[in-house]
């Protein structure tokens, strides 16, 4: 484990008071593990739960509060686990329930919570429920899925399309029974019929199964799709959607929340592609989810004004929802890596460091996707190795743990043949190489997280954005007598920020994200804001300001 977390002396958190008093899901990062690509313990080329267990110290070293595991349930893997054929077991490729229990136990021993992915909108076509449902029109489980007669022309019943562009219509004809079934994603992922209360009850039972086993929270996959227009009307070009986010959604979430609230201290985080921000925040009321991923952020261009506008609008909306707590993320297993998305090579790498700074130091919970702490770019996946229907292989490349020159081509991820190619520069980007380099993105992530964990202002304080000149995003965090000014440069070349008269004249440099800046946090040089050092491209800088009052 890196020495950065040692900066947090035992008892510091308790002494700080309210960092420890915040709910666990607000305190620090949730680290997303995509198990297929994290660590392979048995040499079959696919990551597994024993691999996760063996690397829990790595996750703890990042100052994370929780691990979110992408699906590990039995699955034919048409969508790599997001097509579940049994909600209450572990797929043999990942391990067994016993190994899962060991992961939970060992995670808890390290103070890490465990969050599971709950895929409730659809099952696999091989789930026994669907096998029964499609067997005949009068099967008792027919109504557990969404079946409809062909449209007047014999084609699909309406205009709904799959979220996977390559799939096209969200309907597939079942020749045997002469009806279409709905699939919001791949044809191997039939949508459950949430208008049937038996379906809802059965799914609630799957939640209890995992919460009884000690799981601390659920990430709700595609949750907005569990409520659709029961009349299956066209979504059309304009107006409110009919294929998701139907008016029944809030009641369904409230009933789910009740189930989760039967257990102490559990958390729900939703994957929520809401139509706009005012709609988004309605899901974060006391009867909804604790956290939600807002995809408006990930769709923003690399533009400081767009980020500032988003942050300001979010905080303005938040004011209307008591206790609303934001989440910040730019990477997951469905999105191109920041280091590739916002520039390549060195520029991309600098911006990836700036984004790690941003998601940890804005007001809210940071979500770090495995490999983001290494600043990994997307991998190059040649056409013959493409396996995903929706083009997401590059961001799912396995984690390079060791130098290939030492551990072989599997880079410590596997001793076998990896299911996807690794990133090209594994020799330099792997965990072992970054452990040896104090200026690495890995060490930077630990330093940023440690700062957050020991500061009430940074983990739970107030936030306001401030003017900093063009192409620089800046915000002030304040709480428990501390005050910080954070900034990230969005410029492609060096940039000197400029601040308005409302800020103090001087601040102490606590941290800079550029690799050149090797000083450690605390007791940094004092700088006059008017003469602030030039920011490198993508650079994040944290200054401690004199406290007000
Ligand atoms: C969202 C998941 O993140 C994605 O990987 C999956 O393909 C879809 N939901 C369908 O479950």
Automatic annotation (TrEMBL):
PANTHER family, sorted: ALPHA-AMYLASE FAMILY MEMBER, NEUTRAL AND BASIC AMINO ACID TRANSPORT PROTEIN RBAT
Keyword flag Hydrolase: yes
A molecular function (GO) term: alpha-amylase activity
Protein name per the record: Alpha-glucosidase
Record bears the keyword Hydrolase: yes
Keywords: Glycosidase, Hydrolase
SUPFAM superfamilies (alphabetical): (Trans)glycosidases (SSF51445)
Family: Belongs to the glycosyl hydrolase 13 family.
Source species: Pedococcus cremeus
Domain Glycosyl hydrolase family 13 catalytic, first and last residues per copy: 32-396
Pfam families associated with the record: Alpha-amylase
Biological-process GO terms, alphabetical: oligosaccharide catabolic process
């Amino acid at each position: 484990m890196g020495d950065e977390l040692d900066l947090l002396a035992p008892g510091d958190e308790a002494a700080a008071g309210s960092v420890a008093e915040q709910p666990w899901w607000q305190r620090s990062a949730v680290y997303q593990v995509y198990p297929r690509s994290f660590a392979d313990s048995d040499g079959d080329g696919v990551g597994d739960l024993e691999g996760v267990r063996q690397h829990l110290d790595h996750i703890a070293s990042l100052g994370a509060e929780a691990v979110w595991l992408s699906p590990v349930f039995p699955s034919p893997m048409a969508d790599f686990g997001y097509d579940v054929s049994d909600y209450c077991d572990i797929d043999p490729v990942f391990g067994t329930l016993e190994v899962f229990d060991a992961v939970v136990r060992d995670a808890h021993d390290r103070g890490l919570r465990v969050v599971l992915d709950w895929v409730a909108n659809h099952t696999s076509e091989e789930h026994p429920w669907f096998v029964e449902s499609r067997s005949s029109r009068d099967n008792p489980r027919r109504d557990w899925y969404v079946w409809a007669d062909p449209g007047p022309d014999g084609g699909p019943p309406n205009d709904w399309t799959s979220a996977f562009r390559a799939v096209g219509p969200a309907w597939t004809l079942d020749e045997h029974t002469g009806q279409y079934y709905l699939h919001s994603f791949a044809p191997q992922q039939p949508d459950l019929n949430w208008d049937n209360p038996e379906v809802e009850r059965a799914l609630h039972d799957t939640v209890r199964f995992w919460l009884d086993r000690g799981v601390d929270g659920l990430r709700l996959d595609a949750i907005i799709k569990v409520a659709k227009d029961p009349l299956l009307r066209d979504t059309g070009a304009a107006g409110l959607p009919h294929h998701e986010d139907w008016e029944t959604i809030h009641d369904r979430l409230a009933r789910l929340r009740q189930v989760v609230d039967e257990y102490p201290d559990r958390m729900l985080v939703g994957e929520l592609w809401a139509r706009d921000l005012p709609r988004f925040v309605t899901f974060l009321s006391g009867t909804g989810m604790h956290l939600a991923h807002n995809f408006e952020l990930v769709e923003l261009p690399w533009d400081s004004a767009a980020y500032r506008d988003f942050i300001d609008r979010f905080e303005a909306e938040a004011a209307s929802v008591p206790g609303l707590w934001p989440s910040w993320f730019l990477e997951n297993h469905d999105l191109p890596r920041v280091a590739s998305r916002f520039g390549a090579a060195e520029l991309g790498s600098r911006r990836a460091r700036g984004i790690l700074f941003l998601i940890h130091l804005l007001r809210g919970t940071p979500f770090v996707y495995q490999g983001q702490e290494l600043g990994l770019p997307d991998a190059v996946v040649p056409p013959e190795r493409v396996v995903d229907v929706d083009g997401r292989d590059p961001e799912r490349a396995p984690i390079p743990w060791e130098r290939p020159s030492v551990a072989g081509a599997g880079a410590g991820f596997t001793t076998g043949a990896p299911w996807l190619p690794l990133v090209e520069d594994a020799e330099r980007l792997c965990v072992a190489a970054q452990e040896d380099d104090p200026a690495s993105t890995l060490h930077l992530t630990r330093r940023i997280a440690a700062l957050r964990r020991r500061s009430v202002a940074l983990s739970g304080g107030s936030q306001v954005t401030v003017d900093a000149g063009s192409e620089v995003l800046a915000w002030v965090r304040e709480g428990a007598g501390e005050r910080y000014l954070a900034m990230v440069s969005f410029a492609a070349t060096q940039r000197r920020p400029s601040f308005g008269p409302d800020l103090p004249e001087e601040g102490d440099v606590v941290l800079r994200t550029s690799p050149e800046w090797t000083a450690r946090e605390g007791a940094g040089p004092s700088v006059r804001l008017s003469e602030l050092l030039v920011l490198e491209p993508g650079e994040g800088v944290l200054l401690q300001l004199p406290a007000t009052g």
